[in-house]
Design a protein that fits this description.
64 residues; mainly alpha; 89% helix
Length: 64
């Protein structure tokens, strides 16, 4: 490192290693969060659809 005069090369090597690790961690985190977000959006859409259609069905039952 510092004694051999190759500190800059060693720091570059370490930075490349950590850059690769961070990219890998972000990719894994993204792949885990994506299905959860899809399920969350699906639940919101289901709730909105029920909020619209349930009152309409109740009115249709009363009209009969």
């Amino acid at each position: 490192g510092e004694q051999s005069g190759s500190l800059d090369a060693m720091l570059l090597n370490v930075s490349e290693h950590y850059d690769t690790e961070v990219d890998y961690a972000v990719k894994n985190l993204t792949s885990m969060i994506e299905p959860l977000l899809t399920i969350g959006v699906g639940i919101i859409v289901l709730f909105l659809a029920l909020a619209i259609f349930l009152p309409m069905w109740d009115v249709a039952k009363i009209a009969q």
